Amino acid sequence: MDHHVHVLRDAQQGLVAVVELACIQALGRAFHQLVLVGSAALRVETPGSDVDVVCFTQSNGEESAGMPVDSLRKVHKSFSALVNQYANSGASISTQLIEDARVPILRVLWGPPGHAGRWPRNNCIAVDVSVDQSRPVEHVRWFQSVGAAPSTRTPALPAPLVTLTLRCVKWWLRQRQIPRRKDGGLPTLAWLLMTVHVCFLPDTRDQASTHRSTALMTLFMAFFAHYSAPDGLDGVLSFAPDHSTSEFKHPATKKAMWGELSVIDPTRDSSEPVDLAPHLTPATQLLISHELRRANLGLRRIPRIEPLFGESRKILEEMFEPLPDGANSLPSFTSTAISVLLLWGEDAEACDIELGMVDRILPRLGWNASFLHRTDDRSELHTRLYDVDERTGRCRRKKIPNLILCPVHFICNVNFEKHGSNMRLEQDGLERFREMKRVLIEMRSRQQPVDMRAADCLAAGTQISSGRTRHRRPSHRESRSKNKSCDLPTQTGRGRQAGDEHL
């Protein structure tokens, strides 16, 4: 991975230089500086990572630079003119101006001739440009101030051990397709802060200093051990104003089956805390808990004193085994039936993992993205449910009417395979089904009173399919949490989301 990143950096710098030239030509005296932020600035980039830059403007003494989106339009026009001068350079460059997002961006893609906009991200270089966004810069400075990212004053020094751990966690998120903020999961920034917290725990640091030859593995194992615990995603993570300490405070009493995670932005004033973690649906929590547990169990099989080769290397390769594209994403349209795992029940106590065949998808009015958001309780999934033999994976249609469920019930996609005259789950899907069942049993065993919000979420939109469908509008409690924002992204589902910017 390091070799891949180092090879790309020269090309990335060249593309960023062209972007900077476009900014200078487009904005003139209103241009102030172009600042590198996000993964590249933190040195936690992985293959396929975007390069994020912020263009800062200034008043030229006569008039202001205008709105960020206006500046981006000028930069877009200037960049297109520059690119046209090098149309025969042997590579293709495509641009996309995303205006209808909370944070408008100009995306520049560089790739093989004729394929810049179509090649897989690992084969392209992507630069995302935003204007006058100070928060990403503050986040980079914060990570540098606590020693979790290299300082720009010492570029020749190796990346700190914590930085390497952040990169490993980010690679795991990518390989296992853990839902991102735009899908209804946690923002990357929240994951990085969660990693920093574990790396700086006294016990973790002591273990890493004692076994320096395996220090990186010690930090990596500590991360998964911490958050795969039964209450690992239930609590409030905050950092001291002077960055000297952090605390993950669990609820005094466990009152609900499902956790409530908060990650407080350390760059904001403590008098007005900003929570970077959105409300996670029970189905999304179950998926994340399963993946954390899977990684933790695998790492625990690695002997501490054995060098990373042989059996240990095999375990690590299994842990980072990439899932197929779209394995944890629900499309907004399908021409053929798709098989999925769902978390469904009349209430939080009775919810269970179900195998469903989605025959038809009806996105909510105004939704134009290619995927559905995991907090969406208005889009419709016309579904047939199946019983699964946990020993063989054989599937049999349940003797109940078809249901109309919602994306809030969606856990992940799975695949069927032909087995004689019957169908059965493929081995990977069957293993996920079994393990998630175990996780659900553990969660249920810790439950005290009924979690009413989870109950509303699981029951939201459930109907019996009987010809004409009447869509029930969810109540206020179903569509919006009391303490957490469940707002869906913009109608296109593109652009930047709060807390996930530039990472």
TrEMBL record:
InterPro entries: MTPAP-like_central (IPR054708), NT_sf (IPR043519). Residues 476-485 have a biased composition (Basic and acidic residues). It comes from the Eukaryota. Residues 33-133 form the Poly(A) RNA polymerase mitochondrial-like central palm domain. Signal peptide: none annotated. Residues 461-503 are annotated as: Disordered. This is Poly(A) RNA polymerase mitochondrial-like central palm domain-containing protein. The lineage of its organism: Eukaryota, Sar, Alveolata, Dinophyceae, Noctilucales.
